[in-house]
Every structure is written in structure tokens, then in C-alpha cells.
Amino acid sequence: MSSFPTIRMRRTRQNERLRGLVRETHLNVEQLIYPLFIAEDLAEPRPINAMPGIMQRPLEYLGREMERIASLGIPAVLLFGIPAEKDEGGSQAYAEQGIIQQAIRRIKAETPDVLVITDVCLCEYTSHGHCGVIHNGTVQNDESLKLLADMALSHVEAGADLVAPSDMMDGRVAAIRRTLDEHNFSAIPIMAYSAKYASGFYGPFREAAGSAPQFGDRRSYQMDPANVREALREVDLDIAEGADIVMVKPALAYLDVIRQVRDHCDLPLAAYNVSGEYSMIKAAAQNGWIDEQRITMEVLTGIRRAGADMIISYFAPDVAAWLRE
Ligand code: PBG
């Protein structure tokens, strides 16, 4: 094998045109999904303290934001709802007039070209803040499935294009698939949060979505950050249950998981660049310690290089604008 001076790696790094020719990974706007928080009983948009630039929005303020997203070419939004009333069973999660169901109808009427993906999980709607129903202090798996399926169905009936279960109950993809098919929604894809870890990186989100558990934590249903073989089992099960897209979440501390899932299966793969990953960059940038644009592009490119097809990110509008520069 020949080496220096015959081989000079710097030859193809000399200018941007050459670098472009040999570039292996691309970040494109059509692979970005932007999360939105919609709150009931709110008069004005409310900034999230721990997530600079991100707001909870009342329904009335959704239109303008959706037009901005559409004009930036962002193909999809992921919706989270903050209901006015919470109860033990999370009944607003599957109410026909729930905040998310209203938001979906409005978005589909006003900006129909943007795909609407909905987060299917009870934690924003339950008084105890857990992702399923509680009996004797524990989250009940099988009992929660019916509610999650009802929730997904109510989203699709309102016009959602995809549903994304994030609760981590066993069997929820199958339950949702069966319910959707029974109601003639066999064409609606399921994006499954397959390998969702019990992560400290969700901290800022819980302020944004008002979904912190009132007792205990989520470690009896979300995954242990130490495990990767278990992630592949979760992915296999979700595929067997009918998932169309699988997801790894969070992204940055789990790039190896993204890579292994990519090598393990042929399904489209999503990665969630979560709230804590966003807020850390924002905080350091606000202190002048890092270059926000450069670091954000590097992080999202890294997530793509690890193997993600699509990225859910609070940076989506910024990245869409930077890609146009
Ligand atoms: C709901 C849900 C959470 C996130 C997405 N869906 C929070 C959690 O599981 O505690 C986190 C998203 C983020 O941190 O950006 N279960």
C-alpha cells in the first residue's frame, strides 16, 4: 500500500468545491421535523425559560408559526399539547375537543401541506404526570394500551398524518395499528419511539410540556442508558408490531445506538435531538462560549452521519434558514 508522499489527504480539502464533491453526509431541510407546544387557556405565547426561542402557543397563534415553518420548507411538525385540565386517566388526551385535536384540524385547514405528526403519550394529560394509568403506585401496561390507541385514533380522525407513540408501554404499536386499521386508517404510518431512554436530557421539555412525574421517575418503562442490545430488541418488537419508522431518543449521547439500529434494520430511522441537547447549546452560545450555528450544524450532521434519516429538532427553523444562506 502506498502512502506519503504519493498519498496526500489534503488534496481533496483545498477548497469548498472539492470538499463538496467528497462530502459523505448531507443535512437537508426535507429531513427535519419541528416540535411545537400548544397550550389551552393561554392568552399570549409563553416563552419556555429553559428553552430560549421556544414557546408554548395558544391555538390562535399557531397559524403564523405554521406559515413560517411552511415557508422555510420544513416538511413536518410534531405536536405536543398542554391541556387546561388533567385527571387520573388523562381524558383530554383522547377528547374530540382536546387541545391537540383542535390544533390538528386548524393546521390541516390552514397549512395542509405541512405533515402533522402527533406525540402519543399520556404524561401531559395525567394529573400524576406518568405516561400510563396508575394503580397501586405502578404504571399499568395493558390498561394503558386502550387509552393510547384511543388517543392515536382521535388524532388521526382530526387529520393527523402520522402518529408517534412515546410512552414506552409494551405492545402499544400493535394496539395502535389494530385500532387505526379497524377504523379504515390503514394508510397512516406509525413513527415509534422505539429506543427511548430514561434521560436527564428531557429536563427542559418537562417545563415546556408541564409533564414532570409527580412521584417516582420513568425508569420502569423508559430504557436504561447503559443498554444497547435491549434497544435492538425494542426495535425488532416495534417492527413486528407494525412500526413504519423507528426512533432513537435522545440523540447525542446515543450516537452508537443510532448506528447500531441503522445497521440492524432497514426501516427509516428518526433521531430526536431533545430539549436538553438544544438548551445546552443555547446556554453556551448566549454566554459567547461557542458559535451556535457552527456547533448546531456539526451536531445535526453528526446525527445524520451516525445513521439517522430524519431528525426531530428545536433547531429546525434555524437550520432551514442557514441551509439557504
Ligand atoms: C413524552 C415525551 C417526552 C419527550 C418527548 N415526548 C418527555 C418524557 O418522556 O419525559 C422529551 C422531548 C424532549 O426532551 O425534547 N413522554
Care to describe what's here?
The protein has helices at about 15-20, 60-70, 100-110, 140-160, 170-180, 205-210, 230-240, 255-265, 275-285, 290-305, 315-325, and strands spanning about 30-40, 45, 55, 75-80, 115-120, 135, 140, 160-165, 190-195, 245-250, 270-275, 310-315. With about 325 residues, the protein is of the alpha/beta class. The chain has a single domain (about 25-325), classed as TIM Barrel, CATH 3.20.20. The strands form 2 sheets. Strands 1, 2, 3, 4, 5, 8, 9, 10, 11 and 12 form a 10-stranded mixed beta sheet that branches. A two-stranded antiparallel ribbon has the order 6-7. Helix 3 packs parallel to helix 4 (about 140-160) and helix 8 runs parallel beside helix 10 (about 290-305). The radius of gyration is 20 Å and the shape is globular. The model has no long low-confidence stretch (mean pLDDT about 95). It binds ligand PBG. Ligand PBG binds near residues 119, 202, 205, 274 and 275. Ligand PBG binds near residues 131, 166 and 275.
Summarize the model shown.
The protein is of the alpha/beta class and 325 residues long. It is 38% helix and 17% strand. Residues 119, 121, 123, 131, 166, 202, 205, 211, 218, 274-275 line the site of ligand PBG.
